[in-house]
Amino acid sequence: MSATPLVSQVDSHNPEKSELIPLLGASVVELSAWVQQQGQPAYRGKQLHEWIYQKGARSLSDISVFPKQWRAEVAEIPIGRSTIHHRAVAPDGTIKYLLELADSQIIETVGIPTFGEGGKGPKSRLTVCVSTQVGCPMACDFCATGKGGYKRNLAVHEIVDQVLTVQEDFQQRVSNVVFMGLGEPLLNTENVLAALKSLNQDVGIGARSLTVSTVGIRDRIRQFAQHHLQVTLAVSLHAPNQALREKLIPSARAYPLEDLLTECREYVEITGRRVTFEYILLAGVNDLPEHALQLAKCLRGFQSHVNLIPYNPIEEVDYKRPNRDHIQAFVNILKQQQIAVSVRYSRGLEADAACGQLRASKN
Ligand code: SAH
Fold it and tell me: CA-to-CA distance for 152 and 134, rounded, in angstroms?
């Protein structure tokens, strides 16, 4: 986010139409510039930053360290927080939220706690799965979000807000953020980049603990690489050949697998970071031994990691999740082929865990 919109929040040519730009997503430098523009000393910017990102202020009128009169003057300027419309807790501690935005649109966010084991295992973590759009235009066949259509991109504050909301609700610092909720992040690259920057610099989450997942949009992975971020890129592959991928992902017709893999290789060269490939396992569709072998061939010599995601059933289509033996057989073939692989079981199935499912059932 640049300092400009913050400073000129009200369009002087058309004050009726001007929209107040929310402050969430702005850096301490931008907030300091803004308070000075308002005739306040620069240190108020630092205070504002702390109240927004650490104390969770929802309105400027809440900020008790600010002079009363100024608070009243700026009370209308939004910080940009959402409200919790619905909250579903799964037995494993995962919490799914439906958040209501200023224009009444509803998005989905998930908080996924991982508990340290008896003090010996990894420290307890809290991962947030954030949405980047209201709905999604990609219409992948197995995905509940696509079935609900597409409304709009999320603004920077609407992405950062999701992380603050989960952090407040769990009363625990968020350690990881995955951009795997509603929407296609690389169709909203500018706001996603600004949100990544704010999550890193304002909320304080390490860049390597941020993961952006994309189905692949032509040229966008290359452009994303030019920013040389330390974040993880996850690419939703889901099929080891073009014919099958086209059946599952309509956008693959205009952007062949070969081109996608070429861009991913460039991403590795430019950033020096490996790519994660996500691969949904759909019983009898893409989970046969021949598919594992083809996948291994596609990725040979590629600095990458395969994340297998057993399909999470959704109502609209009748794909099936493979059983554990099938999943293990697929893993074993990849391992024999020297491909780094892990299986990601969806958390909180009971709370309609698949992308877009809660929104479909409760909205
Ligand atoms: N549009 C981005 C990010 C959102 S989806 C992308 O496609 O990567 C995040 C991940 O969840 C993707 O890999 C997506 O394919 C997967 N997913 C969607 N529906 C699913 C389902 N029913 N079961 C399992 N994974 C699913």
Answer: 5
**CATH numbers and ranges of domains, the chain:** 8-73 (1.10.150.530), 83-351 (3.20.20.70)
CB-based contact 227:193 (threshold 8 Å): yes
130 alpha carbon – ligand 1 mean position (Å): 12
Q: Are the CB atoms for 221 and 187 separated by under 8 Å?
A: no
Average pLDDT, the chain: 91
* Parts of the chain with a pLDDT under 50: 1-5, 7-12, 14-18
Both tokens assigned to 76: 């209308």
Closest CA to 261 of 250, 245, 283: 245
- C-alpha 187, offset from chain centre: 12
Q: Which of 128, 131, 138, 142 to mutate to test the pocket of ligand 1 (most atoms within 8 A of CB)?
A: 142
pLDDT in tens, 100-128: 999 999 999 999 999 876 555 556 899 99
The answer to whether 142 and 311 have CB atoms below 8 angstroms apart is: yes
- CA of 138, closest atom in ligand 1: 1
Strands in 170-231 per DSSP E: 176-179, 210-214
Strand partners, 4: none
Residue of 130, 147, 309 to test ligand 1 pocket, by largest number of atoms within 8 Å of CB: 309
Which amino acids bring their CB within 6 angstroms of ligand 1? 140, 142-143, 180, 184, 213-215, 236, 278, 280, 309, 311-312, 314, 354-355
What pTM, to 2 d.p., does this model score? 0.93
Q: Give catalytic residue positions.
A: 108, 355
Give the span between the Cα atoms of 82 and 95, in whole angstroms.
16
Residue whose CA lies nearest to ligand 1 atom number 7: 215
